[in-house]
UniProtKB/TrEMBL annotation, chains A, B:
This is Ribonuclease J. Keywords: Calcium, Cytoplasm, Endonuclease, Exonuclease, Hydrolase, Metal-binding, Nuclease, RNA-binding, rRNA processing, Zinc. Zn(2+) binds at residues 82, 84, 86-87, 149, 171, 397. Gene3D superfamilies: 3.10.20.580, Metallo-hydrolase/oxidoreductase, Ribonuclease Z/Hydroxyacylglutathione hydrolase-like. It is found in: Cytoplasm. It comes from Cellulomonas oligotrophica. Binds 2 Zn(2+) ions per subunit. It is not clear if Zn(2+) or Mg(2+) is physiologically important. Binds 1 Ca(2+) cation per subunit. Seen in 1 crystal structure, it is not clear if it is physiologically important. Residues 29-223 form the Metallo-beta-lactamase domain. Its EC number is 3.1.-.-. Ca(2+) binds at residues 57, 59.
């Protein structure tokens, strides 16, 4: 994330467009880009980032909306390129600010966001579009291009204004044999290129990966093999939005005479939506309620569940711990048909090891070809740059290393350095006369949601929790006779998460007594000052013990 | 790790050997195996495991020595297969129990452990051995076989007793073109096999990886390319024990007219040892003190430093954060010539991104062939099983999934299931007449070292720290008039790491008053009971707020 200090921005030239990425540049997740022209705004995607170890207690991390303050009425639309959480998860929080912002997206994307908004008790104003559509929304002339990704119905979006045309690929790859036959539409992109793409915002996730991402279809043999070779039940875990992967699993199950039960709230909900809208095709009678599977012999059973990232509360983790009604054991195969999102490795390996300990065979991307990425590799990106010859390229959707690798790919196709804009969240980029320029920086902090509440949890609070995690807490209770300036009784230490704090009682007591003996009358009559005196006296002693330092809470009571 | 309950063990038959793995089976790290015969013990390796997210505050994790209680005098030796921390890191703690246990190992291994023990103020009784040696140590007839690994001078060890022969591979691979020409000695192992290997303990780390691990030598082109293409400084980070990798870096630096400075305490120390003992060969004048490099032009400079796993206090992480005197920037290349140990991904990627943000090019195993594993892949393991035809195989050194995969490889070569022993730490395996049998289980808990102190930190304490991390802490101060059974003043809430705890003050106050009004006289006069009453009353209120639950500390004071 960028930590540059936001400053005053120059006024936007009426003949220019302004592009402000507020998420997804420097980390993968909470993607969001604001496009401005002639006083009007359109927002491209609004996702969330999932918290890591350094964010204890945080549910999700939002983009920083603060640069939109005073501009809510100027927003013509939110355009969603596809239905993944890192592109749509922030919409409920955006719509809290102004619920009637039109939400533009494809059929499946709108179904997913509408379902999510229902949980937030928001009824969105939706505008359904399809690949090939061109539509004026406020000040912006939008055109939608089919792209292939790890969720169906993804769109790239072209935004035209009198100042030029930008194209945002969204997340995409160029699978030449997609399960649904829906290719990333290079001919459509070529028509846009003929007109001239002034700024091309391009998915950077796999820019470091050489060559071409293999086809989703190439997973069929390994998935089929799992079904062919499993004596008892097959339990598949994948992303609840990966409709094509689930389609392959359903097809393989049907081909091997097995029934399928969906397990886990989001899996059940998404597959219902996908089936209703025709994105998931289920042969008659193959999908049944999970409890019906209990009555079938094991070799006719398939469960498809959530938890492929080792989420502790998801179905798969609970099975691994033996805390789920589905008891995994000898003869069962667990298929993790999913990626390994960086940061989740430890959790996923723990689940794999626990399932192995229960006797199950675990098939995962580490030992079989059962997953392929949803993002274009370096070869595909270069192919696009050479085909489309955009005037300027801005890598999006990646950590710093991915953005740089993607920028390097653009340069390798002969683009001039001034036409490749590698920036971080909050950078303000103006486009005029086909030229781009970074003109400033707006706030792009991490905004934490905890228990549904936005922005109350801050970095100071997280630092306190991390300190508590590392060192525990010692509460020092001091009953003070402030007239005499002494302790009325020995200090008491209460500790949580600290090794043998009680050992330090005597030394803390002496330290507090010494500090009290030197205290001024002003300190002795000021509760806050007394608290601080006791806390510091205790910290001095505890620091000498070495090791992780506990947080000290002082409670002073007048005798 | 195993959590089976230890029970009473059958007496060991005088014609049998007993093998008890106390570490390394179920997780990679803290490897340790105890071998017993005729009342005497030999210990093979004694390593540490590094803590993860769920072990806040812990320095390292030791094997559980509790099953050795009362047996210390029976130990004839500790045999160290090689000098990695996960095989030698526990030795100082073992020698605290009995400092005169002979420590057996190769020259480099003994140099590394002696250096470590010096820091612990222990002078070990060492027994140097070399590949090819056969030596009687107490009741055990030991023979040492050269193996190739990511540290020089690794040994497999054969342990013969009248009850049979076991062979422990230690960590190994079968690089056919090792930099030092020291191959894993298959001919030597074959001689042992001709005699008959009753139990073969085999490194499982890469049992899931198909094919053959490529040669260390195959990294030369990519490493050379880094030096050839870098305009300014080359900064290399690798394991401080990976002498061969550092040798390649030193050679490449010399070939490109660069000097090398070692940075970081363990790197400097280990390279000094390796150079003194002749394991690292440095062309005259190539290695210099790091501060000498300041006077050279950037294109003649190479730093070799620690921190390849993203350790926050190591040199590389400090450079990435701009907190090191070596300021990394545009034109520099950082080469991470190292693996990515599971669990460290987030930290490593953060370092890579920060270095990229500073303008450096970062070359790592994700974008170039600059690292190769130190462990044998599936192809090599199968090759060994087919060549040596051991009577029994016991996979060691791996998580549950690795052990199972290794066991499956042994089965795939035609071994009978009763001859493949896949167990977890603490399993007690008896070998007699060429047959193995699991006869029981000893304690194999995780033993935590915190600030040099062994075993004080326990699971209860870690659970408290995790609770503090997730929810913070609220201290509730209640001044109670126990005679009247009421609060003498409103409760006070002090919070650390909690969102708006103060909002709950009124509700907590009411909850405590209600609880007091129902309390018995016995409770009102018992401080512990009063504390619990206040804590529970506060918890009831705070639980209703949803979200992460804070730890509540109650302080009750008599008015």
């Amino acid at each position: 994330m960028s930590r540059s200090t936001p400053g005053r921005l120059p006024a936007l030239n009426p003949r220019a467009m302004r592009i402000t990425p507020l998420g997804g540049l420097g980390e993968i997740g909470r993607n969001m880009t604001v496009v401005e022209h002639a006083g009007r705004l359109v927002i491209l995607d609004c996702g969330v980032l999932f918290p890591e170890e350094e964010h204890p207690g945080v549910d999700v991390i939002l983009p920083d909306f603060s640069s939109l303050a005073g501009r809510w009425k100027d927003i013509d639309a939110i355009v969603l390129t596809h239905g993944h959480e890192d592109h749509i998860g922030g919409v409920p929080y955006l719509l809290r600010e102004r619920p009637d912002i039109p939400v533009v997206g494809s059929r499946l994307t709108l179904a997913f966001i509408t379902s999510k908004l229902t949980e937030h008790k928001i009824v969105p104003k939706t505008v359904e579009v399809a690949a090939g559509d061109r539509r004026k929304v406020g000040a912006f002339d939008l055109e939608f291009v089919a792209v292939n990704h790890s969720i169906p119905d993804g769109l790239a979006v072209a935004v035209r204004t009198p100042a030029g045309m930008i194209v945002d690929t969204g997340d995409f790859k160029m699978d030449q044999f997609p399960l649904d036959g829906r290719l990333t539409d290079v001919r459509h992109l070529s028509r846009l290129a003929d007109e001239g793409i002034d700024l091309f915002l391009v998915d950077s996730t796999n820019a470091e990966v050489p060559g071409f991402t293999i086809s989703e279809r190439d997973l069929s043999p390994a998935i089929g093999e799992v079904f062919a070779s499993t004596r008892r039940r097959v339990i598949v875990s994948s992303f609840a939005s990966h409709v094509h992967r689930i389609q392959q699993v359903v097809d393989a199950a049907a081909a091997h005479g097995r029934k399928v039960g969906f397990v886990g709230r989001s899996m059940v909900k998404n597959m219902r939506i996908a089936q209703e809208l025709g994105y998931l095709t289920v042969p008659e009678g193959v999908v049944v309620e999970p409890d019906k599977l209990d009555k079938l012999p094991d070799h006719q059973v398939t469960f498809v569940c959530t938890g492929s990232q080792g989420e502790p509360l998801a179905a798969l983790s609970r099975m691994a711990r033996g805390e789920h009604q589905i008891e995994v054991g000898e003869g069962d195969t667990v298929l993790l048909a999913s990626s390994l999102i960086p940061g989740n490795e430890t959790a996923i390996y723990r689940v794999i090891n626990r399932l192995t300990d229960r006797g199950a065979r675990v098939v995962h991307r580490g030992n079989a070809r059962v997953h392929v990425s949803g993002h274009a590799s370096a070869g595909e990106l270069v192919y696009l740059y050479n085909t489309l010859r955009p005037r300027n390229v801005m890598p999006i959707h990646g950590e710093a290393k991915h953005l740089r690798a993607n920028g390097d790919l653009a340069l390798s196709t002969g683009m001039a350095p001034e036409n490749v804009v590698v920036v971080r969240d909050g950078a303000v980029v103006d486009l005029m006369n086909g030229k781009v320029k970074v003109v400033g920086q707006v706030s792009a902090e991490e905004v934490y949601v905890e228990d549904g509440v936005v922005g109350r949890t801050d970095e100071r609070l997280l630092a306190q929790r991390r300190a508590l995690r590392d060192g525990g807490v010692v509460t020092v209770v001091a009953v003070i006779d402030s007239t005499a300036g002494t302790l009325a009784e020995p200090v008491e230490l209460l500790s949580t998460g600290v090794v043998h704090a009680a050992d330090a009682q005597g030394a803390v007591d002496r330290s507090v007594r010494t500090a009290l003996s030197k205290a001024t009358p002003a300190t002795l009559t000021d509760t806050d000052a007394l608290d601080m005196l006791v806390r510091r006296a205790a910290e001095r002693v505890l620091r000498r013990r070495g090791g992780p330092q506990p947080v000290v809470v002082a409670v002073t009571v007048e005798a």
